[in-house]
Amino acid sequence: MSDIEIRDDRAAGRLEAVVGGADGEVAGRIEYFVLESPGRALVPVHTIVEPAHEGKGVAGTLARELYVIAAREGVAVAPLCPYVTKWAERHPDQAPPAAPELRRAAKEWLAAHPGRF
What we know:
- By secondary structure, the chain is an alpha+beta fold.
- Helices cover 32% and strands 29% of the residues.
- The chain contains three helices and five strands, in the order E-E-E-E-H-E-H-H.
- Helix 1 crosses helix 2 (82-90).
- The mean pLDDT is 94.
């Protein structure tokens, strides 16, 4: 998808795919949080694509960009989102696996914050 812009709203925990230029619409998003301990990691929890944009590569573009951001920041991605987990399995060259302790800590954080997602 060539006309997609990715916006990282770290404060809100959303990576958004916007189509249609600066005033465009959000075609999809990954909802995530930043794990701080036992190590820093981006933890995607949900991937959502608006029905009008399904099948256009929005989710894959978001997943790829999440890993690009993590690499740029020198942190891991510890996916809890089923889509991002499957995407990472299909793209091991772009999505290095997270250490088991990061995934465990991410699950514990999510369980301790049930209203967050």
